[in-house]
What we know:
47% of the residues lie in helices and 14% in strands. By secondary structure, it is of the alpha/beta class. It has a single domain (5-9, 14-308), classed as Dihydropteroate synthase-like (TIM Barrel, Alpha-Beta Barrel), CATH 3.20.20. The strands form two sheets. Strands 9-8-7-6-5-4-3-10 form an eight-stranded parallel beta sheet. A two-stranded antiparallel ribbon has the order 1-2. Helix 8 links the parallel strand 8 and strand 9. The longest helix is centred in the middle third of the chain and has 17 residues, at 168-184. The radius of gyration is 19 Å and the shape is globular. Keywords: Cobalamin, Cobalt, Metal-binding, Methyltransferase, Transferase. Belongs to the vitamin-B12 dependent methionine synthase family.
Amino acid sequence: xxxxxxxxxxxxxxxxxxxxxxxxxxxxxxxxxxxxxxxxxxxxxxxxxxxxxxxxxxxxxxxxxxxxxxxxxxxxxxxxxxxxxxxxxxxxxxxxxxxxxxxxxxxxxxxxxxxxxxxxxxxxxxxxxxxxxxxxxxxxxxxxxxxxxxxxxxxxxxxxxxxxxxxxxxxxxxxxxxxxxxxxxxxxxxxxxxxxxxxxxxxxxxxxxxxxxxxxxxxxxxxxxxxxxxxxxxxxxxxxxxxxxxxxxxxxxxxxxxxxxxxxxxxxxxxxxxxxxxxxxxxxxxxxxxxxxxxxxxxxxxxxxxxxxxxxxxxxxxxxxxxxxxxx
Length: 328
C-alpha cells in the first residue's frame, strides 16, 4: 500500500492508507492573522513557539510552516523586498529553525516562493513535506526539481493555469498530470500527496460529495495519498467546527489520509480519534482511551490545549514511548 514517509530529527510519520490519519497543524501561518504577522515583522516568535508546542500536544503529527503575508511599510521602500522574493526565504529559515528547536515532529514547508521552499528544505532536519506544486507548467518546472534534489514528498494541488475548476473530473485530470510529470523527474507516486481542493459547502451543495468521490478515485486509480485544507468546507457557515468535525470522518472513510487543520479544536480532534478507531487504525483503542482522559480534564475546567499539554508532560515524565528514525 502507498506510504509517504516524513521525518524529523528522530521521529518518523507515515501517511498511508493503513495508517492513522495524519494531522498537519496549520497554525504557523501569518496569512489572515494580523497579530502574528505584526509580531514576525518585529522578529517576535513568541506566538509561533506557543502555537508549535500547543499543536503538537493536541495531536499534530506534522507542522505546516508558512512564511507568507509578512511585509512592513519599511520593506515596501526597500528594493530588496520587491515581489517578496527576499523576505519570505529569510523568514522561512528562521521559522523552521525556531520550530524544530522546540518540537521534534516532521515539518511541512509551505510557500509560493521557490526561494522560501528551498531555504526551508535546507534548514529542516529529516524529511519534510513540501507544500506545494500545482499543474501550472511554470510551477512544475520550478518545484519538481526541488522535490527531486532534496528527495522529499510534495503536496500536489489540483489546479492549473485555468484556475480551480468546479468540475471534479477536471481536478482529477490535473492531479493525474502532476503525478505523470513528477514521474518524468523520477519522483514516485508514493511521494505525492494530492490536495483535490475542498470547496465551501455553503457555496456549493455538492462540495462534500465531490471531494469524497475524488479521494476514492485518487486512491484507486492513481494510488496516491491525499490531503486538504479541512476548514475550507465550512467557510462562511456558522458553527464551523461542527461542520468540520462531520466532514473529517466522512473524508477518512472515503480514503483521505491527512489534512492541514487546526488541532487545537477538540471537536475536530475527537472526530479524528474516533474515526481512527472505527477504521481499525488505533489498535485496541489505546489512542482513543488516552484522548478521552484529556477530554475528561476539559470537563473539569481546563482548556483543551492545557489538558493536552498536561497529558503530554505526564507521558514524558512516565517514559512515554518515542519512536522513529533519521534519514541517512
